[in-house]
Amino acid sequence: MTLPTPTPPIRQFDRTALRVDLQAAGLALGNATLVRIFKREQRLEVWMRGGDALFVRFRDYAICKYSGTLGPKLAEGDLQAPEGFYRVGLGQLNPRSRHHLAFNLGFPNAHDRALGRTGSALMVHGGCSSVGCYAMGDAQIDEIYAIVEAALRAGQTAVDVHAFPFVLGDDALAAMADHNWAGFWANLKQGYDLFEQSRVPPRLGTCNGDYRFGRDVDGEACVEIGAWRA
Description:
The protein is α+β, with helices and mostly antiparallel strands. The protein has a domain at 16-165: Beta Barrel (L,D-transpeptidase catalytic domain-like). The protein contains five helices and 13 strands. The strands form three sheets. It has a five-stranded mixed beta sheet, with helices on both faces. A hairpin with a 7-residue loop joins strand 6 (93-94) and strand 7 (102-104). The chain is globular, with a radius of gyration of 17 Å. Keywords: Cell shape, Cell wall biogenesis/degradation, Peptidoglycan synthesis, Transferase. One of its GO terms (biological process) is regulation of cell shape. Belongs to the YkuD family. Residues 33-162 form the L,D-TPase catalytic domain. This is L,D-TPase catalytic domain-containing protein.
């Protein structure tokens, strides 16, 4: 007889030091949160809304591993970590992950689906191993997960995760002008620039194979990008 695989327990960890660090930065668990990922730099940034309603950068975390190369995920099994704009709701959190802790990016989002891209179980998780995910060290995912979970439980509808190939400055993008994905990255840069300028996550949508932002999401045939529905 085959015995059922035991369900991993929910991890518990001490958030005292994290709370102290947040307080020193004028922040707290429960503040609205944004996550940005940069593949080439192997960096995950956590931004949180401060007292003036603008988002401030709380902490950077080193990405232990990601799989694939620069460019978006196209198909199930291509071992490519996604790039694009994703939204994480409570139903995407996994406190019992075999990779310590995890949250699902929500790939494929509405934009990916419109382009026929396929894939599943694309995560940010601990464990430092990746077959299409962004893998962090366990201590790092403890903090990231705690901040994301607290924001959602405090009422944030969804935490935005912006996954970029690299920091999308003008010079960096110009240096990649001959790359196959230069056009896609120029589209991502529109959203990148909006946040850089306003320090508020832009409204996200997809229309006719491109990401759209802000009021442009209301255009004809546009679909807003959201988290999983509960």
